[in-house]
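hiii so um. not sure if this is the right channel but i have a protein structure encoded as tokens and i wanna go backwards to a sequence. like what aa goes where. can anyone help
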């Protein structure tokens, strides 16, 4: 093998090792983020149920005097870090499994949306659930879009056409005007702007208890499988 060939083989091997290490580190970081969220969820449960009072400090051989003492001994993470994520958890109000999937850094970005634009939180969470490897910077971009003008763009659209009676048009425009006042967009007359307002109205409608029950029955009956929405359930 010539010297040039040996250098080429060596450089390819070096690149492969770098790529492998980079992939390993990315996987480790992702796992660490998920585990930190899991740890914070469990710590929050301990705090809520005051379970630390049942446990003995291995150093003093006595019950823990406070929640902070227990954190220092068993958790071995900074109190500020633990408390910060507990605060995030309380703002997001998402299932623990969802929080663990999202990870610490992405959760910190989402809490900004939860505080200022809570109606938009679910849409970003759904995007992350569909794309679990979504990088933090992309979540940050979506959060920034929402916070700046309440406009969220997943990058894909579907057009809906409706026939509205002329006498009902004023009600539609009034509803859009109210939504624009609540969640303003830069161009409310654009198709995407009106579409966002329609989504908000539908989400509000589906958030009501009676509608949630009907929706659950439809889902259990397979109404939305394979895009099927032309489906009825029998009345009891």
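sure thing!! here u go:
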């Amino acid at each position: 093998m010539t010297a040039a060939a040996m250098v080429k083989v060596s450089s390819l091997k070096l690149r492969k090792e770098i790529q492998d290490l980079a992939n390993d580190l990315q996987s480790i970081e992702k796992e660490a983020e998920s585990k930190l969220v899991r740890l914070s969820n469990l710590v929050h449960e301990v705090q809520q149920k005051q379970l630390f009072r049942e446990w003995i400090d291995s150093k003093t051989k006595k019950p823990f005097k406070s929640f902070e003492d227990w954190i220092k001994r068993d958790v071995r993470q900074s109190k500020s870090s633990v408390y910060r994520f507990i605060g995030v958890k309380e703002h997001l109000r998402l299932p623990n499994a969802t929080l663990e999937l999202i990870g610490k850094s992405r959760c910190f970005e989402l809490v900004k949306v939860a505080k200022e634009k809570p109606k938009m939180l679910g849409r970003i969470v759904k995007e992350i659930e569909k794309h679990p490897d979504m990088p933090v910077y992309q979540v940050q971009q979506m959060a920034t879009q929402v916070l700046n003008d309440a406009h969220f763009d997943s990058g894909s659209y579907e057009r809906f056409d409706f026939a509205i009676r002329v006498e009902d048009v004023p009600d539609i425009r009034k509803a859009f005007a109210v939504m624009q006042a609540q969640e303003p967009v830069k161009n409310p007359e654009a198709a995407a702007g009106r579409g966002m307002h329609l989504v908000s109205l539908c989400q509000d409608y589906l958030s009501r208890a009676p509608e949630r029950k009907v929706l659950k029955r439809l889902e259990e009956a397979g109404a939305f499988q394979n895009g099927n929405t032309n489906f009825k359930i029998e009345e009891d």
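oh and The first helix runs from residue 3 to 49.
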